[in-house]
UniProtKB/TrEMBL annotation:
It is a multi-pass membrane protein. PANTHER family: TRANSMEMBRANE PROTEIN, TRANSMEMBRANE PROTEIN 245. It comes from Hymenobacter humi. It holds the Pfam family AI-2E_transport. The lineage of its organism: Bacteria, Pseudomonadati, Bacteroidota, Cytophagia, Cytophagales. This is AI-2E family transporter. Belongs to the autoinducer-2 exporter (AI-2E) (TC 2.A.86) family. The chain crosses the membrane at residues 21-40, 76-98, 154-172, 208-229, 235-261, 273-294, 306-335.
Amino acid sequence: MSDSSTPIESIENIYTPHQRHVLLIATLLGLAGLAVFGLASYLGAFLAAGILFVAFRPWWVALAHHRKWNRRLVTVFILLVTVVVLVIPFYALSSLLIDRVIAFARQPDRILDVIHRLERATGYQITEQQNVRQLLQQGAVQVSRWVPTLAGSALNFLVIVGLMLFSMYYMFMQEDSFLRGLHRYLPFRNETLQELGESLKNNVNANVLGQVLVAMVQAILTGLTLWIFKVPDPLFWTVVAFFMAFLPVLGTPLVWGPAALYQFSQGANTQGIGILVVGFVIIINVDNLLRILLAKRMGDIHPVVTLVGLVMGVEIFGIIGLVVGPLIVSYFLVLMKVFRRENRRGREGAV
């Protein structure tokens, strides 16, 4: 029988030091998993904060480090720019897109009329009416899931934006401790951390700054083309073209191609040919030229990495997956290269 008066400190632990080490790591991973699971609905806010921290860090370094401006004022300025330039316009555009997609899904008669005209012109039955209605409804639901709007949940929108701005504030205000913490707790060599940081910067530059710039130019060109050739509702299709432009290869042809078919179905053959000529000669070439010029200046990301990352990222993370998806693929490739290098060093050291 044990002595009840024995001090707790002197009781022998049943685990070895190695077992305690393993259990400590397992406990940390378990608690981290619970935290991620509990915050899963708001994970996009923290990911967006990290991405914007990288995107705005050159401003921060220039103003807070080089010019020695007040850090709090610089941080507040960056947050205001984020809200005014990014948050408000993006959610206004996405709300317009969602509203119109839902309206099309509820009243598909115009789309069905165009399809019937094309069927009569070509002599081929494209699809059944019921299938078209079902596809429109499924598309509206899917787009609503990918692109959250104020109409969907005002409280959820405010919480996500609030968490994003709150996280950005402390990332900038406590920049030194934040970066030191990454170096201290991430299980990588400094060389690997530099590679991962470079990959993050390239992805943010290519898939945020570069892609947004390309998408804006493509959307404006597409919208002007549709307006000149009298396609109905060019403003709405400009918004659609902006989101479609993030898709490599496919992109805006998914907008101006069907617009040309619409004009052909209406008997406006000259306008349909005009849209195709402008699309193939100007819009696609401007897209290719911009991507080539920006690739070297803003992050050289392979199109396959971008395409696979977009498909995976949007499905998992929604609209923020436009950046997170390619980043995950890039990190996977970087870590595979690190794994190969570490194995080679281990073999050379064993010889």
